[in-house]
Design brief:
With about 675 residues, the chain is an alpha+beta fold. Helix 5 packs across helix 6 (about 115-125) and helix 7 crosses helix 8 (about 175-190). Helices cover about 30% and strands about 35% of the residues.
Length: about 675
């Protein structure tokens, strides 16, 4: 077995590989850029090597720099993680030439299947059903438009060397095909150093289901069942689960056997994933094969008990698989939510900055469920603009799907993240969405269910009353503390009242609260009552409450006259007032928001790539105004209404912060 391996990656996946290597008694070497000198993966590894400036194309994907780190550290093998150099055959060749083991598939398999164009041709030649499309190289936008028209809209424009949603666009007409081709080409060049593009038919109402395969260098191969990855945003997966709630045993077996046959046809060895689009009649179509470890591999590990990273290391060491297909049964259900530094209230635009608070839920195994959190960050660390915005992958396992979902709901409510925008409220909303709960979903789930973006969660009356009752009980605890701190005044002890008004989410509840040993009974004006208990004390930012014998987990912040409470995706300002205070509050005028309708504000920290208009131009609704690049993704900012450009404050190459004014209109 290897004595030392280098992880040619960063963040969460580097930490994940280090954990398994440590378990196997193997020393690890981390590599890091200037931006990552204080990163968690650097701290966790046995040693670390600096490889250059923050941009990935000057550090993490520069083969010569990584090879020098391997040489200086004396590493015997390299795990590439995902992204970066994981599917780069030139990197695998360089390792082979240096006599260093690649913890991944053979070079020929990477070349055959890692390139989406080549892999589709091989699949077609092998008789595998594939999605209609044009597999040749596309030279320019005019050709892209012509091909798209011939295939028939909508089409998917994809980077040949792509992955993780980078370099992918859906086009519904000629204009979008032209624009999408150039954006995909730019993103592909920046992310992968390869700007080749191909186009295929976009299958409407599809489900994205992938098969995990594992093969050794002795001709053995197995499939570890499937993962449902249909909940995606901009073609990047957000929620994954294993198994799929859609497949039946016969379809699962057929897909698994086809995936293994394809892997064996190209001499595959290591862990890999064969991705399929599955329609409503359970017809499946080969999309691509990812010749690397997938981001969502933990859900497969949770239902099979197999450590995929360990298996990759053992295969790279020349060992035979000790697992047979008959060994691979499905045990329970697992769900993964990807926590991203993206602000769901700003159209999921990237958010960067310092994590002023980062407290994941407790990991562990309980009687009927478990919690796992794969992460590469820590409290006080910074989220950089240079890399993928993933913060963590929160996973839960349950004896069945309902148990796994409920465990995830609780875990999300316990997950504390402050200092940056993040998508916790959104994934919490998904976990409660009827379509997700029923398993009735497609890759269009987000765009169909949130067509106007995510505006937060509106709680129903029953849940709102539970929150109101809990807030009243918490306020009573805080008032008692304040009374004790203030002591006595003119020899009269301060008394905490029992009549209160709780205002939240546009509703107002008059209620009374009666103390009990270790609890309180809250009675609403209509006579309904709730018994509230919990261990919350003033200053705690997490309240584990029980209302009418049902758990209620709240994130708690202090605001004037009440609390900021977040639960189940809702973000509430909760005001707890005396009846007289509530009466006066109703007379206070609402503060009006500043008028920004004549300004184009930068919605995220990023770099201006291109400005499409000039001062004096008349612009139409939907017209592209400029392009901002952040976290390797290009974002086109468009006019919301007709107008005339009166001033441009930023140009290509300028770095902007959130809400910086890019241009002004008359």
């Amino acid at each position: 077995m290897f004595d030392k391996i280098l992880i040619a990656n960063r963040g969460e996946i580097a930490c994940r590989v280090i954990k398994t290597a440590r378990k196997m008694g193997i020393k690890t070497v981390a590599i890091y850029s200037d931006a990552d000198k204080n990163a968690l993966h650097v701290e966790m590894a046995d040693e670390a090597v600096h490889i250059g400036p923050p941009p990935a194309n000057q550090s993490y994907i520069v083969i010569d720099k990584v090879m020098e780190a391997i040489k200086s550290s004396g590493a015997q093998a390299v795990h590439p993680g995902y992204g970066f150099l994981s599917e780069n055959p030139k990197f695998a060749q360089a390792l082979e030439a240096a006599g260093v083991a690649f913890i991944g598939p053979p070079v020929k398999a990477i070349e055959a299947m890692g390139d989406k164009i080549t892999s589709k041709k091989i699949a077609q030649d092998a008789g595998v059903s594939t999605v209609p499309g044009y597999m040749g190289l596309i030279e320019d936008a005019d050709e892209a438009v012509k091909i798209s028209s011939e295939i028939g809209y909508p089409v998917m424009i994809k980077a040949s060397a792509g992955g993780g949603g980078k370099g992918m666009r859906i086009a519904w007409n000629d204009a979008e095909a032209r624009e999408g081709f150039q954006s995909s080409k730019n993103e592909a060049a920046n992310s992968f150093g390869d700007d080749r593009i191909f186009i295929e038919k976009f299958v409407t109402q599809p489900r994205h289901i992938e098969i995990q395969v594992l093969a050794d260098t002795h001709g053995n191969a197995v499939y570890l069942h499937e993962r449902e990855c249909s909940i995606q945003r901009r073609n990047q997966k957000v929620v994954e689960e294993a198994p799929s709630p859609f497949l039946d045993p016969e379809t699962r077996k057929a897909m698994g056997e086809q995936a293994v046959s394809l892997a064996q046809a190209v001499g595959y060895a290591s862990a890999g994933t064969v991705e399929f689009i599955v329609d409503g009649d359970k017809n499946f179509y080969f999309l691509e094969m990812n010749t690397r470890l997938q981001v969502e591999h933990p859900v497969t590990e949770l239902i099979t008990g197999i450590d995929l990273v360990e298996q990759m290391i053992r295969v790279a060491n020349g060992e035979k698989l000790t697992i047979t297909q008959d060994d691979l049964t499905i045990n329970g259900w697992a769900i993964e939510n990807r926590l991203y530094a993206e602000d769901p209230y700003r159209g999921f635009l990237p958010s960067i900055g310092r994590l002023t608070r980062y407290r994941p839920p407790q990991e562990g195994q309980w009687e009927d469920h478990s919690v796992r959190n794969d992460t590469g960050v820590y409290e006080g660390g910074e989220i950089s603009m240079y890399y993928d915005p993933m913060i963590a992958k929160l996973c839960t396992w349950g004896k069945d799907r309902a148990t796994a979902i409920e465990a995830m709901r609780v875990a999300l409510d316990k997950f504390e993240v402050e200092g940056i925008g993040h998508n916790l409220p959104f994934v919490a909303a998904v976990m409660d969405h009827p379509k997700f709960v029923s398993g009735d979903m497609t890759t269009a789930f987000i765009e169909e269910e949130y067509p106007d973006g995510f505006q937060g969660v509106t709680l129903g009356d029953a849940e709102l009353r539970r929150v109101a009752a809990a807030a009243a009980a918490m306020n009573r605890v805080a008032e008692i503390r304040r009374a004790r701190v203030s002591g006595t005044l003119d020899n009269h002890e301060r008394r905490v009242g029992d009549r209160w008004n709780v205002a939240l989410q546009g509703e107002s509840y008059d209620l009374t609260i009666a103390a009990e040993p270790g609890a309180a009974t809250v009675t609403f004006e209509d006579g309904a009552s709730m018994r509230v208990s919990g261990n919350w004390t003033p200053g705690d930012q997490l309240a584990d409450m029980t209302v009418n014998d049902a758990p209620l987990m709240l994130k708690v912040g202090k605001i004037s006259g009440g609390f900021r409470i977040r639960t189940r995706g809702a973000d509430l300002k909760v005001h707890v007032r005396t009846p007289r205070q509530a009466e006066l509050a109703r007379l206070m005028p609402e503060k009006e928001a500043a008028d920004t309708t004549k300004l184009l504000l930068c919605p995220m920290p990023g770099l201006i790539v291109k400005v499409d208009v000039e001062v004096g131009d008349e612009v139409q609704e939907g017209q592209a105004l400029c392009t901002v690049e952040a976290m390797k993704m290009e974002n086109i900012l468009r006019a919301e209404r007709k107008g005339k450009v009166s001033k441009i404050n930023a140009g290509p190459g300028d770095s902007l912060a959130v809400d910086d004014v890019i241009m002004e209109f008359e």
